[in-house]
Amino acid sequence: MFALVDCNSFYASCEQVFRPDLRGKPVVVLSNNDGCIVARSREAKALGIPDLQPYFKLEGLLRRHGVAVFSSNYALYGDISRRVMGTLREYSPDIEVYSIDEVFLSLAGMRDLPVIGRQMRDRVWRDIRIPVGVGIAPTKTLAKLANGAAKKIDKLAGVCVVERPEQWEWLLRRVAVTDLWGVGRRLGARLNDIGIRTGWELATADTKFVRRRSSVNLERTIEELNGRPCLELEELPPAKMQIYCTRSFGAMITELVPLQEAITAYATRAHDKLRGQKSLVSAIHVFAHTSPHKPGYYSVSGTVQLPYPTDDLRLIVTEAKKAIARMYRPGHAFAKAGIGFIELTGRRYLQADLLTTGQSEKDDKLMGLMERINQRGGRGTIFLGAQGVGKPWQMRQQHTSPRYTTRWSEIPRVSS
User: pLDDT of 156-197, one tens digit each?
Assistant: First the structure.
């Protein structure tokens, strides 16, 4: 049996953890640069506030309803996610962290599954103050289905256990095929064209007939919908083959130096992920463009081959700055830029080259030291001077909450 534990309205719930005065009240979280609404508390959804809509269009509506508005605070969300996953590991040693707010657990051989589900739900709320839904079923796909039911059916009180065929049949008859995990809108449209509109119609479809019109992945989904596991837990997620970091600017950039500062900052963020998955990069992609919503749209893009696979941030930044300098032309107001690490190699699989010296042991130690300092003091404790200070181009984040759990200076204070 598998359990899927999914945090409810995760970003909005994180903002309520250290603000008990906001529990039970409408809360929304904005995307990077305070652009769009990307998360809504249950109360905000009940007000009819739409998702993925520009903030400036809804600002008046939010103010009239007294909705609390927050900029994205990824340091806070990431740390609370880590705490949730750590708590759930106490219920099973075999888990797959599927996303920042979802985790699969293996409950093989365990009894009293409804009790275990309620215990997980109550424990996460008691210790972390994050509401979760729990779906338990014989396969990961059915666990995902059960989790959706746990959130939508009030009688279930956040926990849905599906153990018998008649139970998952009841759910599948009531869910659109496009809402199933692993199907999606485009594939769902093709299935609709051949008369498959509900989850139950897909579960009872002829697998050979369906496979001729899709792929082996959909055949596995059908097996999973019938209680036959085809998807195992991925306890160690595969390393990414490419890493990108791209952001819109808080103010337009018209000069080269601030553009290079932005590229440096984004390279630093991508470098954190590179180090996290123990990879090296051999080629980078640098790009920038003006606003597509204004006349005279202009974009630049280029790829740079590095002299050897590396995770030396200094080398990466040097080459990225040279690349953007070659492409830069005055007279344009850039609205967005980014960098991609596009050729990655795992450290353990690196092949030595007799013709190049490669990254030195001294460089390895320096990168490790920078990483440890930032892990202890928080991101940005130590950084390359090429990032600049002040950064008028930095993203707009006018509603950011404190990083309560990762910055000493922002720890909540209790006064009597």
Answer: 999 999 999 999 999 999 999 999 998 878 888 888 888 889
Q: What's the rounded Cα separation, in Å, for the pair 328 and 82?
A: 40
* Residue ranges, the chain, pLDDT below 50: none
Alpha-carbon distances, residue 170 vs 138, 174, 219, 305, 342 (angstroms): 15, 7, 21, 55, 46
What pLDDT, on a 0 to 100 scale, did the predictor assign at position 351?
Answer: 64
- The three-point CA angle 390-399-24 to 5° equals 160
Which amino acid makes up residue 384?
Answer: L
Side chain identity at residue 101, one-letter code: D
pLDDT at residue 94, as a whole number: 92
Burial class (CB in 10 A: 0-12, 13-18, 19+), 11: buried
In the set 15, 43, 96, 102, the catalytic residue is: 102
Strand 68-70 with 2-7, pairing: unpaired
Query: Whole-angstrom Cα distance, residue 18 to residue 73?
Result: 13
Please tell me the distance from the alpha carbon of residue 62 to that of residue 43, in angstroms, as a whole number: 12
Q: Answer whether 129's CB lies under 8 Å from 17's CB.
A: yes
End-to-end CA distance of the chain: 48
| Two structure tokens written together for 389 | 């200070």
Two structure tokens written together for 130: 């994050």
Q: What local confidence, expressed as pLDDT, does residue 388 receive?
A: 84
DSSP state of 54: B
Residue 341 φ then ψ, to 5°: -95, 110
Q: Name the strands in the sheet holding 95-99, side by side, starting at the edge strand that comes first in the sequence.
A: 95-99, 102-106, 2-7, 132-137, 159-161
Query: What distance lies between CA 354 and its chain's CA centroid?
Result: 40
93, with CB counted inside 10 A (0-12, 13-18, 19+), is: exposed
For residues 104 and 94, give the distance between their C-alpha atoms in angstroms, rounded to a whole number.
9
pLDDT digits (tens, 9 = 90+) for 102-131: 999 999 989 999 999 999 999 999 999 999
Neighbour count for residue 323 (Cβ, 10 Å): 22
pLDDT at residue 35, as a whole number: 86
In angstroms, the CA 286 to CA 294 distance is 22
- Provide the pLDDT for residue 7: 96
> What pLDDT score does 185 carry?
82
Verify whether residue 102 is a known catalytic residue: yes
173 vs 170: CA distance, rounded Å: 6
